[in-house]
Write a structure and sequence with these properties.
Number of helices of chain B: 27
Largest sheet of chain A: 2 strands, parallel
Number of helices of chain A: 6
Oligomer: heterodimer
Number of strands of chain B: 15
Strand order of the largest sheet of chain A: 1-2
Largest sheet of chain B: 9 strands, mixed
Strand content of chain B: 5-15%
Strand content of chain A: 5-15%
Radius of gyration of chain A: 16 Å
Largest interface: A-B, 32 and 26 residues
Structural class of chain A: mainly alpha
Radius of gyration of chain B: 26 Å
Chain lengths: 176, 668
């Protein structure tokens, strides 16, 4: 998604600290400081007018005195869990106890909660993007995102350039 | 369909209120408003549940269900959003509380300050969370109201203005509690500060409740005050007689705080009663009592919730209103019975999945309550938080851990991680204790085995595991756990349970040295003396048994079990008059003891007072219908010349049927 937004012409806030690796060979568009959002919510000021990658548990720490457009990418939870497990194994960090099914259930509960919470937040406008739909019809999804973000950047995003960034071969953690 | 008995119901929670403290105040006319409820209605003990932890208990009161069902398992829970921990919240309650059921049925329903009530629930009325009165700032300006503490949100400003900040209290308001406040060295003694905080929070809660009564249509209002509990935890050591270690000067300064707290609560009750009006049904309950005598704990174990050692397992209940008996006592009520009783008062069915039952003794006319399988399955808006917001804190914690492991979030920090681990451990431990308390040791076992294995340094887990093995009849496993602990010098608890284990195995000779060793380690445990006494009695050492029962009574003069034991000894020694007197004291202390009524019946029969003896046996049977020996005695008494042969035959037949059933079940 970050590749899409950058290719479309939206300025992206990232620090380049996390290098491309086996999990993400095209690199990470991450901004390290966002990890500290709960204790330093003011850091988001640096992202004014830009796109920044924010994981769902951190959304509620975005200060409510600003308005945000959130592109929320949804993916089958079994795929998310599989992808995360693989990344954790390679990072050699400690995963929470419990089997894959438990993690999927926990992620599902979390997603429900975030979804419910988002509906009541006046400062957060959300565009829900379905990952599978993106793989099938990237241009249509790119158009939807560009329309949603119209006005957030100086110019309308380049939909074709966005769509070209979608590479189904990188979609490796399939469910089922 | 059961009739609706109550027009309106006012449910008042007084955390930790105890008849032991209230009775002298009632007798001296110092709690006139409570007196009006007691004399115009019913009163009785409210038996608590274990573990005696207020969040679990108040949610059992409001749901009629044990903690394994309602899901509130501790004071804290993992914070699902930021890591670390937070006070246990209303989104963690898994089932409907009474106010949700009433909302579902269209009643105007209001709740103020209930334990684990934050964020405020979207019920059909006003809901004020327990975070509402907390003074988050040092001064009242500014004093932001916590998000989510008032429903509906349109009333936030109104309720914010009703709060009292500790800094707003003046000396005049504190002097009734501490008349010699001027002598307090406030640089080194923060007691007045604590007192002001509790008092201010109490006033804020009260203001919210009275505003609702004055300004809103209402059918049900539940209001929870924690002032008595908080005052007791801080000032009970000064309550006369002062505990060892309290200086004479401090005793003189603070000795009146606890009684004053009760009198304050009574004054507030007076205001609530006046606003509610005479046709309102009023119920006052506490979740547990508070030790105020020789049983006040002298050494608090340094473990989570260790200060619950102060909690006495008997709370209070009183109820007044249309259809309620007047100036009567009720017996055998547990806090699980409150929600089913409230539903019946509103003419609503009781959920069959509720663990309590209707307080039938409280009603003027018998009512057969309707029932439904479960209120949880009843469709309709009930004012709970949306399902998506009712997160399982443990699952949410797993998601946070996952994102931290992925490098997307900062770790909450070692302190927070430790706090989360500690809270999750307490949840597991408390759940295991709930299972044990409700006679489900098989469900407790895997939790306790894991806790014991993961935390070999924590004696409490090993002891609870041993209790679990005992309950499962795995006596050798229990003994193995306990012997290891006894060798580590973990008296008296390990020795006490070892004694119980040997006794259960029928080896009282082995049991007794361990029990006596436990007594030597801590001679101030009434229940231990009762166990020693019972073991001596089984060994036919009646003189020793009597001495042990008397020792228990020296520590707890209101212990009915000790009087029952003494009555058994007196009967065995054929001192029937003494036995009758001791059994009478026991039933006076706890009416809901079928054995005490039975012993009274036996003693009276031996004294040839057959009419009174029949009443005692029949009372035992009303409490425990399957009491085989009581049937036998009644059959014998009614068979006497001039007796009632029809009743004799009925009791003989009942006894025979019970005997057959027991044989079929393998019970001798």
């Amino acid at each position: 998604m970050m590749q899409m937004l950058a290719a479309g012409g939206l300025p992206v806030l990232h620090d380049g600290l996390r290098a491309a690796d086996e999990d993400n060979p095209r690199g990470y568009f991450e901004w390290e400081r966002i990890r500290s959002l709960p204790r330093d919510p003011g850091c988001i000021a640096e992202a004014e007018g830009k796109a920044v990658k924010v994981i769902s548990p951190l959304l509620r720490f975005l200060p409510a005195d600003r308005n945000y457009k959130v592109v929320f990418l949804r993916r089958p939870l079994a795929e998310v869990a599989a992808s995360q497990s693989a990344m954790i194994a390679r990072r050699k960090t400690t995963a929470p106890p419990g089997d894959r099914n438990a993690i999927v259930a926990s992620l599902g509960a979390h997603l429900n909660e975030v979804t419910a919470w988002l509906t009541g937040q006046a400062h957060l406008e959300v565009c829900w993007v379905d990952h599978a739909s993106l793989m099938i019809d990237a241009r249509r999804q790119a158009r939807m995102i560009a329309d949603f973000l119209a006005g957030a950047s100086a110019a309308m995003l380049d939909v074709d350039a966005m769509a070209k960034q979608v590479v189904p071969s990188l979609h490796r953690q399939r469910s089922g | 369909m059961a009739p609706r008995l109550a027009k309106k119901v006012l449910l008042i929670g007084w955390d930790a209120a105890d008849w032991k403290l209230i009775n002298p105040l009632l007798d001296s006319g110092k709690m006139p408003f409570l007196e009006s409820v007691v004399s115009g209605g019913v009163m009785g003990n409210l038996t608590t549940l274990r573990p005696i932890l207020s969040p679990l208990l108040w949610n059992s009161i409001s749901t009629g269900k044990r903690a394994d069902k309602h899901g509130i398992l501790d004071f804290f829970e993992p914070d699902p959003h930021i890591g670390g921990i937070r006070p246990v919240s209303s989104t963690s309650r898994k089932v409907k509380a009474i106010w949700n059921i009433l909302t579902q049925r269209g009643f105007h329903t209001h709740v103020v300050g209930w334990f684990a009530g934050h964020p405020a629930e979207p019920i059909n009325g006003v809901c004020v969370s327990p975070l509402y009165p907390i003074p988050l700032s040092a001064s009242p300006t500014p004093w932001p109201l916590p998000e989510g503490s008032v429903h509906p949100a349109s009333l936030r400003e109104t309720f914010a203005a009703l709060r009292v900040h500790p800094a707003e209290l003046t000396a005049e308001e504190l002097l009734p509690f501490v008349p010699r406040a001027a002598e307090v060295d406030q640089k080194n003694d923060r007691a007045l500060e604590s007192l002001a905080k509790v008092l201010a929070e109490c006033c804020s809660i009260h203001n919210a409740a009275t505003w609702i009564l004055e300004n809103r249509e209402w059918d049900f209002l539940a209001v929870f005050y924690n002032a008595i509990d908080h005052f007791c935890h801080r000032f009970m050591p000064y309550y006369p007689p002062a505990m060892p270690g309290v200086s004479e000067r401090d005793f003189e300064i603070y000795k009146d705080v606890v009684p004053s707290a009760y009198r304050l609560q009574d004054l507030l009750l007076g205001r609530l009663l006046a606003l509610a009006g005479p046709d309102t049904t009023v119920m006052i309950v506490s979740d547990h009592g508070f030790h105020s005598d020789d049983l006040r704990p002298r050494n608090i174990v340094k473990e989570p919730a260790g200060n619950t050692a102060w909690h006495r397992p008997i709370g209070i209940v009183c109820l007044k209103g249309p259809g309620i008996r007047k100036d009567e006592r009720v017996y055998g009520t547990t806090l699980l019975d409150i929600a089913p009783t409230l539903l019946t008062l509103f003419g609503l069915p009781v959920g069959q999945d509720m663990d309590g039952r209707l307080m039938t003794q409280a009603l003027e006319n018998p009512v057969q309550p309707d029932s439904i399988p479960s209120w949880e399955d009843e469709p309709g808006e009930c004012g709970m938080h949306p399902a998506a917001l009712r997160v399982d804190p443990a699952a949410a914690q797993a998601v946070l851990q996952q994102f931290v492991a992925l490098g997307y979030m900062e770790p909450p920090g070692e302190d927070r991680d430790r706090a989360v681990a500690s809270v999750l451990r307490e949840h597991k431990y408390n759940l295991a204790r709930v299972y044990l308390e409700s006679l489900r040791p098989a469900e407790a076992l895997p939790l306790l085995e894991q806790l014991s294995r993961d935390n070999p340094d924590q004696l409490r887990f090993a002891l609870e595991l041993a209790r679990c093995y005992l309950a499962l009849g795995r006596l050798n496993d229990a003994r193995e756990v306990l012997l290891a602990r006894a060798e580590q010098g973990s008296q008296p608890w390990a020795d006490w349970l070892l004694g119980v284990t040997y006794s259960e195995q029928g080896d009282n000779e082995m049991a007794m040295p361990h029990l006596l060793q436990a007594e030597k380690a801590n001679p101030r445990l009434p229940d231990l003396h009762l166990r020693i006494a019972a073991t001596y009695r089984q060994m036919s050492r009646l003189t020793d048994a009597r001495r042990a029962y008397q020792r228990a009574l020296e520590l707890d003069g209101d212990n009915p079990t000790a009087f029952v034991g003494l009555a058994m000894i007196s009967l065995a020694e054929r001192r029937y008059r003494e036995a009758a007197e001791q059994a009478l004291v026991a039933v006076g202390l706890d009416h809901y003891m079928p054995l005490a009524h039975y012993l009274l019946g036996v003693a009276l029969a031996r004294l040839r007072q057959f009419d009174r003896s029949v009443i005692a046996f029949e009372t035992a049977l009303s409490i425990l219908p399957g009491y085989l020996k009581a049937h036998r005695w009644l059959a014998t008494i009614h068979s006497r010349p001039g007796g009632d042969p029809i009743k004799a035959a009925a009791h003989r037949s009942a006894a025979e049927e019970l005997r057959r059933q027991r044989l079929a079940q393998g019970v001798r």
